[in-house]
From TrEMBL:
It comes from Salarias fasciatus (Jewelled blenny). It holds the Pfam family dCMP_cyt_deam_1. Residues 19-144 form the CMP/dCMP-type deaminase domain. The lineage of its organism: Eukaryota, Metazoa, Chordata, Craniata, Vertebrata. Its cofactor is Zn(2+). Belongs to the cytidine and deoxycytidylate deaminase family. ADAT2 subfamily. Keywords: Hydrolase, Membrane, Metal-binding, Transmembrane, Transmembrane helix, tRNA processing, Zinc. Its EC number is 3.5.4.33. GO terms for molecular function: metal ion binding; tRNA-specific adenosine-34 deaminase activity. The chain crosses the membrane at residues 189-212. InterPro entries: CMP_dCMP_dom (IPR002125), Cytidine_deaminase-like (IPR016193). GO terms for cellular component: cytoplasm; nucleus. The gene is adat2. This is tRNA-specific adenosine deaminase 2. Probably participates in deamination of adenosine-34 to inosine in many tRNAs.
Length: 214
């Protein structure tokens, strides 16, 4: 569907696809609503290949006590299973698949999408705390060698609805709040250590360069 298309054309097709197929936005927010009703951060996700939903999911972090079970990761697992059952090449399918999600993918999910070569992400509201598509880090389009391919993002699809669902969740008590707080702390520490390591590597490289300069 998207093979050989420029990123701009790919984005246009993604928007046309969700506007023509009314089931896509309905199914997307049904996933988010299901997450909210089950005590999860209300994020829903769909993966669409040749106008067929091949993966869908919602946040399952509290339910599984696993901080990596974001809606995107759950959906990607379904896509991989779908490819295995149909004996299809994962890379070929991913390169022609569009991901729709109610909230901007976090840094972790954006990295996974790069590695799987998903070309286009259409999302609702921004993720100001952990967004990997420009809000915090621009994993989606950054020049990152040997980390898959950059992907196009189209923000703002029913963003207000996505924000209202998030507000509803954060107004209520989170039964696994301590678990999530621990995850957030560890995640921030990881980011700090990661960037410190890059800084020290840069300093060492500069020292090495100047020490060998004539």
């Amino acid at each position: 569907m998207f093979g050989g298309l420029l990123t701009g054309e790919c984005a246009i097709l993604g928007i046309v696809q969700i506007k023509k197929n009314e089931a896509l936005p309905v199914g997307l927010f049904l996933q988010a609503r299901d997450a909210l009703e089950n005590g999860e951060v209300p994020v829903g996700c769909l993966l669409v290949y040749k106008n067929e939903i091949v993966g869908k999911g919602r946040n399952e972090v509290n339910e599984t006590k696993n901080a990596t079970r974001h809606a995107e990761m759950v959906s990607l697992d379904q896509l991989l299973d779908w490819c295995r059952r149909g004996d299809l090449d994962v890379r070929s399918v991913c390169e022609r698949t569009v991901l729709y999600v109610t909230v901007e993918p976090c840094i972790m999910c954006a990295a996974a999408l790069r590695l799987l070569n998903i070309p286009l992400v259409v999302y609702g509201c921004r993720n100001e705390r952990f967004g990997g598509c420009g809000s915090v880090l621009d994993v989606s389009s950054a020049d990152l060698p040997r980390t898959g391919t950059a992907f196009k993002c189209v923000p703002g699809h029913r963003a207000e609805e996505a924000v209202e669902m998030l507000k509803t969740f954060y107004k209520q008590e989170n039964p696994n709040g301590d678990h999530l707080i621990s995850y957030l702390i560890y995640f921030r520490v990881f980011l700090i250590l990661f960037f410190l390591s890059l800084f020290f590597k840069l300093c060492l490289a500069m020292l090495s360069f100047f020490s060998f300069s004539p």
